[in-house]
Write a structure and sequence with these properties.
The structure is a homodimer. By secondary structure, the first copy, chain A, is an alpha+beta fold. Helices cover 48% and strands 14% of the residues of chain A.
């Protein structure tokens, strides 16, 4: 059994789902922190004003909308910003949100 | 008494309010129709799948977020896309949404 959760293909990334994901300030903060860091970040290493279980929900929404890619390294779940995919699916949107 | 409803100044346009406005598909359709038309449009002349009163609410949300400017010509309320203000406040966002 794969431990990598499902992700939409770049062709499945749509504006409505992405807007629904980033309209939430906490989720937008996750995206902004990934963009600013320039590298992948463990779930527990984000600076977020919510509980761990709430944060997990937010990561899931971002993953299902195609904004982040999640994968495991040992027991740690890491998060990568899907910048190239987003720039291809929705040109300019990520820059407008993180700018 | 002025018949022009209140509008935020360009300096008051913020990402959160704009995202909350455009996350709604009907409101995004209003913005897209204004962008495609290239001219101001009367409230009654949009192609929208909602009642007149619901549409009025959507126009108000868009106006209060700074996406559209509303003004009267006689008894008709017209809507203008605030493209220049939006491009200044949130560069690239409008293009990403209407693209």
């Amino acid at each position: 059994m794969s431990r990598t959760p499902p992700h939409p293909d770049v062709s499945q990334i749509d504006l409505q789902s992405v807007l629904e994901a980033v309209v939430d300030p906490v989720r937008r903060s996750i995206v902004t922190q990934l963009d600013a860091a320039g590298h992948d970040i463990k779930c527990g290493d984000f600076d977020l004003p919510v509980s761990k279980s709430t944060a997990t929900h937010h990561f899931t929404v971002l993953r299902e909308a195609g904004l982040i890619r999640q994968y495991y390294v040992g027991v740690a779940r890491l998060n990568a910003l899907r910048r190239a995919d987003l720039d291809r699916a929705l040109p300019g949107l990520l820059d407008a949100i993180t700018g």
